[in-house]
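Q: I have 193 residues here and want to know how they pack in 3D. Can you give me a structure?
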Amino acid sequence: MKRLNTATLLRSERERASLSQDRLARRLAISQSTLSRYESGEAVLPAEVVHRAAQVLRSPRLEVQLCFECPAGILQVPWLDRVDTHPQAVLHKMVEELEEARDAVNVARRHLVNKASREQLTAEDLRALEGLEHEIADLCPALYHTLAVLAESYAVDLSQISSWLYSKCRSRGYLSYSPRVRGHVRREKGVAA
């Protein structure tokens, strides 16, 4: 079985869109030979090229796969290419995962009352904490996959969702800094953040 990575997914998504290498390369402002080298894995595929390709091909799958391959990412998941991508099936699975996480949160809350450090936890408390950690980790693929499938099915721009989330975190005071996103400093009201 061939290993899925961003380069092979780029090729697959280009073919799915019925675009030649030459046509996609022109739309990405790169040469056809460069695109060929990216798709074959002969050259490192820059994140900005993947982002532009995801926009041109309307493929959130590329964004998800790129995030998975980021060496600094934690709890990142690859594009799940063996699951049902019908929006209703994805939403059903999302509800399942959310319910399991909610149940684990409620169990952990009961076990962690008035306990602020690991030394205060019993063996049963630790099992509840581990169960919660696993359920939270299980949410990651469901969240990424749901967003990507909805974006793909209904032509939603994931970068707008990302911008909205960033703005929400800033407005609620959750961030004391302005993170770099896709190589650019976020700007608010025309001023460098």
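Q: Anything worth noting?
A: The two ends are 45 Å apart (CA to CA). The first helix runs from residue 6 to 16.
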